[in-house]
Amino acid sequence: MLTVGDILRSEALGLQGIHVPRPDADVRWVATSELADPAPFLESGEILLTTGLETGRWRTEWDGYVQRLAQARVAAIGMATGLTHAETPTGLITACRIHDVNLFEVPRQTTFVAISRHIAQLLEEQESTAAREALTTQRQLISAAAKPDPTTAVITALAQAVNGAVCLMAPDGRVLTGPVGPRRADFPLDEVEEDVRRLHAHGRHSAAVQSRPGQSVSVYPIGLRGRPSTYLAAMGPMRLSDGQRHAVTTAVAVLGLVDEQDRSRARTRRHLRGRAVELVVGNDSRTAQLVLDVDWPVPVLPERVRILRATGPEHDTDDAMSALERRGMLAGMVAGELCAVLTPEQTQQAADRLDQTGLLIGIGHAVPLADAAAGYRTAGLALAQATPTARVVNWDRVIGDGPLGLIDPQRAAAFAESWLSDLDSEQLETLRCFLRHHGSRLKVAEELGLHRNTVRNRLEAIEAVLPGKLDDPQTRVSAWIALQVQPLK
Predict the structure, then answer these.
(1) What residue numbers bound the domain in which 104 lies?
(2) Residue 351 contacts residue 392 (beta carbons within 8 Å)
(3) For the chain, how many structural domains are there in total?
């Protein structure tokens, strides 16, 4: 952009800066006015030239005049001397200092037409230069996209164009590529990581721009559709030129095309992996290995595996799938669920990573690869026990908990409440003792200090309100479960 400082440096015009606190103010055009209030006729960014024709007798009016021009965001005021005023009025200088407005003096021999023509020429030259630079940069970025590593080549070319540093980051703030560029050591990585994580929550149509002394950082999502898989962070000077801004937008577009190609290949690989997982859990590991060898080189499938199954929102499932893939783990979608074929050693790492998502996760028993279907079934049973407060359930833990681990706590509590509702505390104690001694009435009598006939009478009273006889194994199992889930009844 053309600035006030650029114009004041022109020796041909002979302009003299009186008060120039903002020499970097952008100049969009030149306006000439002798009105006492020209502000309503300005759009911002103009240099206002005036001879002060209506201000010859002004004393206190200058402050309001400059204040209105400051509100109109003029780039500068140019006061011509030698006509109405022999020199720039003191009141005008004071007002410009108060309101932080650029002010310069136009000597008698310099015409307003000369200033306008000179500024128009500079604007045209800058526009032409910016267009050439933009075209050159565009060609460089497009050429970079055709190289073997297009992503690195594009961000390296962009870093040179903005004379700064560029980095490509994952949605969780991890660095994927970079920073690269002449100022990579100054790249504010921690702050950009926070911006990326914040932007990812708002989807694809969001960006961030930070400005600080001497530099600016812009963050843009990359991708033509769907949720962004990467983010571009470009650090350049505090005020990017038109050509540099165009370079950034071109890089975002080019990287979007590269990303779409990568996604297409990733979708193909993911489809093949999903089919391979289906074959593994169907006990056809030989065909699964052949499928994997087509497009995704992996080690030979392990001899023993654990199957992981997970359900949850689509975006969490997609993020989880990507996380497992980055760690070299075999995962795919099977019957609408995320399913991973893991070695026993990988299980804990995968569970820890996925526990940070919104997924519910079940991990099956370790089984031989040839019997992966059994591991898939136990993973499903473990998944059925997962809750928002206990997202990861391992089948080994379910086995350790016994049959109660397979029962929904709320349903079990309702069952116990109904099954035991007609028993008093004395009967409950007798029933527990009876089950503990495997139906031995003699041992019940010894433990409770009762006569055998008293024990017999109590058990008959208990059986009268239960749905079956205590000698029936089904009744004993039901009683044991009810007492376990409601021990204090």
Answers:
(1) 4-110
(2) yes
(3) 4
